[in-house]
Amino acid sequence: MRPSRDGVRTPVTGEGDACIPKLHDIQPPAERALLVGAPRRGTRDAIHVVEHLDELARLADTAGATIVGRLVQQLRTPTPSHYLGKGKVAALGQQAAESGATLVLFDEELSPVQGKNLESALELRVMDRAELILDIFATRARSKEARMEVELAQLEYMLPRLARMWVHLSRIRGGIGLRGPGETQIETDRRMIRTKISRLKRDLADAERHRALLRHGRGRRSIPTAALVGYTNAGKSSLLKAVTRADAFVEDRLFATLDTLTRETDLGGGRRVRLVDTVGFIRKLPHHLVASFGATLEEASGADLLLHVIDASHPQWEEQVTVVDRVLDDLAIDPERVVHVFNKMDLMPDGEAFRDRVAGRFHATACVSAVRRDLGALLAWLHGVTGSGARSPG
To answer: What is the pLDDT of residue 204?
Structure first.
């Protein structure tokens, strides 16, 4: 430490070096998010509004936000202008000011008009659940194709919301060299976004053809494929890591992994199987994102066996199963190819009773624990699919 001329001692890097103050990493301030749940009165969402806001809080945590408060209102019907009533919008603004919120997150999907009016009334950024999920996907996608799929979904979500998201909406000035159609800047932006959407769709179509060639090549090797699908954070990556001993990224956060991961494993006796870890689903997953993520959906559709991984310890696991099954139905996947794999059985105090309960409800089940490597029931199904096309462990 050396004194400066004003008497302040300044840290130095070493003998003979000039006085160099230490540099401190400057992190952007964390968003302070206020959560809003406004389900329709009498619906299932209204019954589980607390659990749904808990999930929204976990999504916000994944995105890097700090939760500073919650507001709940059950509506008979949303208002076309602000979704909430005028009195509740005023109360929301007061709560946001008192908590120092910098962001308001709605669990319900907002129309472009509702989002714009809420931001004007609150003088804060307002995001709905769909936009938050898209933001998480944008920061966590790693492969080139996944990034293209997320960008396509974001642009399709953004297109009808330009009036709220864009600030340079002034009309282009006329003059020499600038006379002509006189389109507004927002119209220019829309045209540019539509052009980029078309280019991304062409690039993704090329990638789809490439994947088809790869699948054709894999098919000639006669190695069956089992795709892991399920609600986000159900433990799909943990199961893949436990079965294949692969180095898969595992984190106790929603959407910890987004890119499709494929690993082959030897089950013994000369039998091999290919496991594919797909992106997780979630309640109210943006439809643009579902439409864009062709790679994950194709892997699920083309697999010999689908392992629907479920967090048995989650209090809302039945609702999560319904969400995933609805997506699988949309993909026209034969339910006979689906095995419901109940993970995290190590957290279940009544394991045997739970096994009997789910066995009576689903046609094919396996109760396992990736943490304890208790995988016998799952391995039996994998052995079955590597045999003569059998669909059961028997």
So the answer is: 84
